[in-house]
Amino acid sequence: MPSAKSDPRRVLLVRLSHLGDCARALPLFWGLARRWPGAELAWAIEPPFASLVERLPSLERVVRFERRSGWRAWLRLRRQLAEFGADLAIDVQGNSKSAAVAWASGADRRFGAAAADRREPALGRLAFNRTAPPAPAAARHASARIEHLARALDCPVPRPGEVAELFAERLDAGRSGLDALGPSFAKRPLLLQLGAPGDPRTLPLERTAEHLDELLARGHAVVVLAGPGELEAGRALAARYAGEPRLAFRIGSMPLDDLAGLFIVAADRGARLIGTDSGPAHLAAAVGLPCVTLHGPYDPERTGLWPRPGSASPHRELLSSTPPNCRPCARRTCNHALGNVCLTAIAPEALADALEGARAASD
Predict the structure, then answer these.
(1) Kind plus residue range of the DSSP H or E element containing 172
(2) What are the b/e assignments for 107-127, b being 16+ CB within 10 Å?
(3) What does R_g of the chain's alpha carbons equal in angstroms?
(4) pLDDT of res. 67
(5) Closest CA to 125 of 106, 110, 142, 107
(6) Which candidate, 117, 111, 119, 106, places its Cα nearest to that of 153?
């Protein structure tokens, strides 16, 4: 990539959606800021995820792609891209839409993954004039592919949790958010992230309650997190457990970088996040909060926690011991006759045991 004599002055990173994928791109942004400290950086992203990046240090501009506006979205995007004037555009997403954004940037150097590593390679052949070498066969995971891109750009790769530096200014918001819950949640709480309704990675409400019952029976203090998409489930659980002193709720909208700050502070207090293979868990893992995730339909070797659970990782994953034949899949809706049994079959006792085992290993 560019030599010292031709270092880029303005660099555009293209990762439009979704929360988990944008969180996985944070290490590359971290590396770009160190690879070219004198360059101006911009991030092309869809508005629902912009609050994750808009206050990042070293980020000069957020380029918002309002894809729901149809053809007008492309006109607005083109104006923003022209105003920034990137001379290097980097596509992290790997589909036709992101390749089109990189091409529309007008950058002299447009960089993306090798055609074999892109989900939609056709447009990439036209959009890019520089590509990474093909990723090794072992690099199946999405984060491994991003690290491969970083190395092809001669960017440093952060150590696990080092991305938390990007959110140093959001820690006060994280502390106040946890402190407001009271002293019962000041040390080693569990954070339970609810999932979006209709998503096959989401536990049904009754099964979530069974997991909560088991955790409370074992003496854990639990903070339930419910974002804008989980309001109904969060309110239903809050009503069901009204008066329970070891259960607190954070319900409603929160800027995503404040959520990152809350995760960082929670990690400092010995917390763990309980979630599924979804955006909040990937953000938590990126900033160093240990997670225990329940995996349903998706293949964790491609989209699970990073770094991958193992001897050097603080994370744990649970999968059903009796998965249906249709697992793994990448469907956005479940068509199994009994629902997402790949997820609901994970017993509450298994989750509680995994949490206690993870804590014992870290003590």
Answers:
(1) helix 171-179
(2) bebbbbbbeebbeebebbeeb
(3) 21
(4) 87
(5) 110
(6) 111
- SS3 helix, strand, coil % of the chain, rounded to 5? 45, 15, 40
Q: What's phi and psi for 22, nearest 5 deg?
A: -65, -40
Beta strands in the chain (DSSP E): 10-14, 40-45, 59-64, 88-91, 109-112, 130-131, 190-193, 222-226, 247-251, 272-276, 291-295, 316-319
pLDDT level of residue 4 (50, 70, 90 thresholds) = very low
What is the identity of the amino acid at 61? R
pLDDT tens per residue, range 90-116: 999 999 999 999 999 999 999 999 999
Q: For 141, phi and psi rounded to 5 degrees?
A: -75, 145
Among residues 317, 302, 309, 177, the alpha carbon closest in space to that of 248 is found at 177
Counting every residue written for the chain, the total comes to 363
Asked if the model's pLDDT at residue 5 lies above 80, the reply is no
User: What's the token pair of residue 241?
Assistant: 């457990």
The C-alpha atoms of residue 225 and residue 230 are separated, in whole angstroms, by 9
Tens-place pLDDT, residues 13-61: 999 999 999 999 999 999 999 999 999 999 999 999 999 999 999 999 9
Q: Return the closest-CA partner of residue 98 out of 82, 113, 76.
A: 113
Whether residue 339 contacts residue 204, with contact meaning beta carbons closer than 8 Å, is answered with yes
Who wins on pLDDT, 311 or 15?
A: 15
Global confidence as pTM: 0.96
pLDDT at 339 over 50: yes
The answer to whether the beta carbons of residues 90 and 67 sit under 8 Å apart is no
Instruction: Judge whether 272 and 291 are in contact, CB under 8 Å.
Output: yes
Pairing label, strands 88-91, 222-226 = unpaired
At 318-338, the pLDDT tens digits run 999 999 999 999 899 999 999
Closest CA to 23 of 164, 150, 121, 154: 164
Angle at CA 87, nearest 5°, toward 84 and 90? 95
Q: How far apart are CA 96 and CA 122, in angstroms?
A: 8
